[in-house]
Design goal:
globular, Butyryl-Coa Dehydrogenase, subunit A, domain 1, 8 strands, alpha+beta, 4-stranded mixed β-sheet, Butyryl-CoA Dehydrogenase, subunit A, domain 2, about 425 residues
């Protein structure tokens, strides 16, 4: 489950034989429009790499092409710029789009922001912002984690103060995917520190280009700058860009987090994996390619490592399919998406260990004078913290999905400004 496009490994499979006349017409329209317009899927090209500004811009153009061709927001209501069709049409689109690159950098917009706006946004917000993301004009990020902590989201320190008819935000956010290329951000801030920490939060739509917003890309040890830290100094936000009621941001945040987990369950980059359910699983060829590159294709130990990596991917794919189908048809509760989030962390950590063992010294060093990244560096995962730490995912699955007793917490009913911290007194 590497974050890149894969080369085709067999004939394309579709569910074309199930189409109604209306669905058949939509399929032919999509097939005809995308041919010659959308760029082809390039094996090994990153699905998203926010430090590659050219690739981000390419995805903006792809999304605009889909918008111009009437293929954006297939299940989004027509009032907000979508087509208002059912999920079957979206499946048909992904079957026809399989040979092409889609706008995968818009994952935050479509997997997180769109569901939040549809659930909690005002009519004015929906009509203002949803067409912008569907047309590729606006890229979104989410401003959640902070330098003081990420897993304890309700303990955030960024504050929003009411001034006149609007709000002023001050604080810092960190580990923001694509913050430096985003136009808007979904930002949770504290509006009342005198109540318990979950009760004094409010959600805002923040202009990432607004005065007072400073965005610093974070240079990672493995190379690249997918993540950013933001500093908000008197960033003005109009009240019409507040999502939900004042001090009810935790309700909105729960929708946001559930949407993120659902996105992981169905596959974050829509259309990256084969759309139709095939009789045989399509497994990535990068593992075999790496083994051959290292001269270990016939090494029994290497073949065992590659085999286990294949099994991990198969289990992940099949579990994701089952959860996605079950939550869609109601046979599984919405909390099942939490299992997918946990599975991402577990499988990615194990896959990293397997590929590290396969790469050996070549994974951390290269011959003097050579250029480019070390062999197999793309194996390194961040999913032990992405979408919530592994420990938080374990708690969520145990408490909310399995119904086990919650961990004790001393600060749940204490006003936020009375919670003891280890900060030094001024």
């Amino acid at each position: 489950m590497e974050n890149t496009a894969e080369a085709p490994t067999g004939p394309r499979r579709t569910s074309e034989h199930l189409d109604t006349e209306e669905q058949r017409a939509f399929r032919l329209k999509a097939r005809d429009y995308m041919a010659g317009r959308l760029p082809p899927r390039i094996p090994g090209e990153p699905a998203n790499a926010f430090e590659q500004v050219e690739l981000v811009e390419k995805d903006r153009q792809i999304q605009r092409l889909l918008w111009d061709g009437g293929l954006a927001g297939i299940t989004v209501p027509r009032d907000y710029g979508g087509l208002g069709l059912d999920k079957r049409f979206e499946d048909i689109f992904h079957e026809e789009a399989e040979p092409y690159r889609l706008a995968w950098h818009f994952g935050n917009a479509f997997n997180i922001v769109l569901p939040v706006l549809l659930a909690h946004g005002t009519e004015a917000q929906k009509k203002k912002y949803i067409p912008g993301m569907l047309s590729g004009a606006q890229m979104w990020c989410q401003l959640l984690s902070e330098p003081s902590g990420g897993s304890d989201l309700a303990g955030l320190l960024t504050r929003a103060e009411k001034r006149g008819d609007g709000w002023v935000l001050n604080g810092s956010k960190v580990w923001t995917s694509g913050g430096h290329v985003s136009d808007m951000g979904l930002c949770l801030a504290r509006t009342d520190p005198t109540v318990r920490k979950h009760a004094g939060l409010t959600m805002f739509l923040v202009n990432m280009h607004a005065p007072g917003m400073t965005i610093n890309p974070i240079r990672l040890v493995r190379g690249g700058s997918d993540f950013c830290q933001e500093f908000l100094d008197d960033v003005a936000v109009p009240d019409e860009d507040r999502v939900g009621e004042v001090n009810d941001g935790w309700t909105v945040a729960q929708t946001q987090l559930n949407a993120e987990r659902a996105g992981m369950a169905k596959g974050w980059h829509a259309g990256l994996r084969p759309a139709a359910v095939a009789e045989h699983l399509t497994l990535p060829q990068s593992y075999v390619k790496l083994a051959r590159q290292l001269g270990r294709a016939n090494d029994p130990a290497a073949r065992e490592l590659v085999g286990e990596a294949f099994v991990i991917d198969a289990v992940y794919n099949l579990t994701g399919r089952r959860i996605a189908a079950g939550t869609r048809n109601g046979r599984l509760p919405p909390t099942a998406g939490m299992v997918s989030s946990l599975l991402v962390a577990r499988t990615d950590a194990r896959r990293t260990a397997l590929l590290s063992a396969l790469a050996g010294p070549a994974g951390v060093a290269r011959p003097a004078g050579s250029v480019g990244r070390e062999i197999g560096m793309e194996r390194v995962t961040t999913h032990r913290i992405g979408g919530g730490t592994l420990e938080m995912q374990l708690n969520l699955v145990s408490e909310r999905h399995l119904g086990l007793p919650r961990e004790p917490g001393f600060d749940r009913d204490v006003p936020f400004n009375q919670i003891r911290t280890n900060a030094a007194k001024g």
